[in-house]
Amino acid sequence: MLGGGAKVVGETRVPIKQGGDIITARQQGRALAAQLGFSSADQTLIATAISEMARNILVYAKSGEIILHPEQDGRSGITIIARDEGPGIPDINRALQDGYSTSGSLGVGLPGTKRIMDEFTIVSVVGKGTTVTMKKWKR
Ligand SMILES: Nc1ncnc2c1ncn2[C@@H]1O[C@H](COP(=O)(O)OP(=O)(O)OP(=O)(O)O)[C@@H](O)[C@H]1O
Ligand SMILES: [Mg+2]
Question: How many helices (H) and strands (E) does the chain have?
């Protein structure tokens, strides 16, 4: 936690190309959340959200990136962008339903992540890629 009005500067970009990159993104996100003064419980939720979106990038798009951006104008928060140039999601509402999975998995990544973040937006174009933008504000 920073005192005396010190600010965390800049954003971090983590390329996602292999399994180990999920761990890196998760750790970087947790570290940024800690610097911003998020509670330990919220740091864990933020790290979990990052892992889920990084895992989706790896599984469905093969590669992409996670961008971690501190928000410090007035209220503190964290913006996380997960973007890829993979196949895209044809029906976003369906993908957000609990239990919907095209890979035979649990289908809880997107809906669960949406629930733990304060803001959650998916922009996806079939054949072009997917961008998930999510924010959590400090309480
Ligand atoms: N980045 C992405 N690109 C293309 N399709 C995606 C992407 N992320 C998610 N999807 C689609 O949305 C579905 C739901 O994603 P979600 O993360 O909720 O579940 P899952 O990955 O199938 O299972 P789980 O995350 O529970 O292991 C996926 O099965 C896939 O069809
Ligand atoms: Mg998933």
Answer: 4, 5
In contact, 84 and 129? CB cutoff 8 Å: yes
Chain centroid offset of residue 75 CA: 19
Question: Cα(70)–Cα(38) distance, rounded to whole angstroms?
Answer: 12
Residues in contact with ligand 1 by the CB-under-6-Å rule are: 52, 56-57, 60-61, 84, 86-89, 95, 100-103, 105-111, 130
What pLDDT score was predicted for residue 1? 54
User: Is the pTM higher than 0.90?
Assistant: yes
Residue type, 88: G
In 3D space, the residue among 129, 128, 139, 6 whose CA is nearest the CA of residue 56 turns out to be 129
Cβ 129 vs Cβ 61: under 8 Å:
yes
Task: For residues 90 and 135, give the distance between their C-alpha atoms in angstroms, rounded to a whole number.
Answer: 24
